[in-house]
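[Automated response] Your request has been received and processed.

Submitted sequence:
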Amino acid sequence: GEVCTMINKKYSEFLPSMQSAEDLVAQVEGLANNIDLLKAGIENEVQRDLNVAVAEFTELKQQLERDTLVLSVLKKLQEFDTAIKECSSALLEKQYVTAAQQLEKARSSHRSLESRRGFELKILKALGTELTVQTQNLIYHLGEEWQKLVVWKLPPSKGSSSLEAVVLSELHLHTVSPQDQDTAVPPVAAVLQALAVLGELHSKLKDFGQLLLQYILKPLISHPSLQPVPEEQPDVFILRFRSQEFALDESSPMEVFDKIKLVFEVLHKHLLNVPLEQPGEGRKEGRVTLAELLGELIWEELSDCLIHNCLVNSIPSNSSKLEQYKEVIESTEEFEQALKEMQFLKEDTTALLKYACNVDSHFANKKCQDVIMAARSLMTSEIHNTVKITPDSSVALPELPDPGSGDHLKMHRPSNLVHNGTVNLGSESRLSPFTLCLPTCRISSSVQQLVELAYHTLLEATASTDLCCVQLFDCVRNIFQLFYEVVPTYHRENLQKLPQLAAIHHNNCMYIAHHLLTLGHQFRYRGPGVLRNGAATFVDLVPGFRRLGMECFLAQMRVQKGEILERLSSARNFSNMDDEENYCAANKAIKQVLHQLRRLGMVWQDVLPVNVYCKAMGALLNTALAEIVTRIAALEDISAEDADRLYSLCRIMVEEGPQVFTPLLEEDKNKKYQEEVPVYVHKWMTFKELMIILQANLQEIVDQWADGKGPLAEEFSAAEVKSLIRALFQNTERRAAALAKIK
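Generated structure:
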């Protein structure tokens, strides 16, 4: 019974909740139907109206954009038109700045019209033309005004900046505004500002700057006698020039700076001190003075001119004057400062001052240039102007101060080689006073001057700053290297043709080599440390110079030897002397050779050092004797008459040969050298022996041979003696016996 009750209870609770669920389902279905109806309504009607509205809106928007564009174009056209009209009326009233500004406005309107894409206006072209016409019109008016303000009175010979032309030039500035006229803006400023606005100022200023350089600034730098004469009148300022009668050849930088400064001061006062609004260009505050603009245009050229035509000349040419150069440096600084105050120069410009302060380097450059120029002209001067040097002649050198003046230098006091020629090697031994001396000879005076130039330049170097010292030292090395290159080439023909010049050149080279040995050493303990480390030497150049002298002289010797052999070749081999014609030819050849040697003996006399002279003449005489011996020894048949004639020809050589030795001017002193001929002539004894053979009988020849121990055997081989015996004597038993003894 209990179970039934529970089931009933649950059932009666279940029925009502099921009822309410069914109601809910019915409601939801009704709602869903409504939604479907609504959706269909929206899709059919509202959507269609909405699409129409959007299309209308887009069309209206495009219409608006078109209208806005047309409106803005019309506005720009109106702006353009107004600007052009304003410009014209401003121009009539000479309101140049306003006119220029209006023109620029019109130009910017025109520019923005041009930039519209897809909007081509026929009218644009016409507007462009109008703009150009107005601009040119304004520029023309401004040009006229500028010409009234700045008037150049130039001499008829245009383009000439000679002194005569410049004295006639004048610059008139009508920029002084009369007192009564109280205009807001002085006409100058207005004209310039308008030009600036139009972007035309630059070219006007450039022309002005060029005239200023050509007729005023540069002439003031290059003509010391020229003086600027400024003159102020109530309504015009005039700059004239006058030429002073007595002016120096070169004006000091101080004077030049003063003149240029005066010109800038008056220009600044009457023309350049105009502040301008610079359109664009992003300058600070956009203000700039005319002076600055002009400065940018001409300063580079002006400073170049000042350096090359004024400062360069003021650089001293010897170190003692370097001290006084401080004055130039100070005035250069003041000059630059004055131009900066007038705003002509920017604050950081220092080209001139830098140049002036770098005086040491410029001094060295200038000195080196002068030295090299002097050296070059010495090298290209005549070789044959000579001076005689003797062992005791010291070069005209600057007396070198005592090198032991500084304490730290006491330990190595060099001996002063150039002057006394003796070198002290300690007490136990002394070199001969002539160990480091040149023998007496002649050298070109130009070479003596060249060596003096080298000494003086080195002396200058020791008194200079390190930088300068090194430059001058290198310069001296360059002189000698230049000699090495220039002289043999420049004088080539003469050195080949003229034996005397070849000898002088030989001496010149030896003289230079001699000085190069000690040149660096003498300056080593003086002057800056750069010379002290031993790098300052010329010794490495010595072998080259010796070789140069030797080669040239040996080449000349070869030429002379060639001529001797050439002359002897016409002696018909010294054969058949019994034939008169042959004898004459041989005689003539020998006479010509002696004549040639005599002439050489004269041109080398007093030129070559005696020992070189004797060696050279000895070698040439030897060439002649050796050739004669060879020719005679080669003969196959010598008759008695031949032998006599050959002997007489040889006697001429032996008698007259030594007389060509005349190394010295004093006749009597030459005897000694003529007696020493056998020392210098290698084949002398051979020749004498040959003469003995030509006169001897068979027995005498055998005696002279003395089993290969006699004097004849010293000079000739057995074969040569046998050959001569066969030529001189007929084939007899006595000859055969004699020949047998020669072995």
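Summary generated for your ticket: DSSP finds 28 helices and eight strands in the chain. Strands lie at 150-153, 170-173, 226-232, 237-243, 275-277, 287-289, 386-389, 441-444.
If you did not submit this request, please reply to this message.
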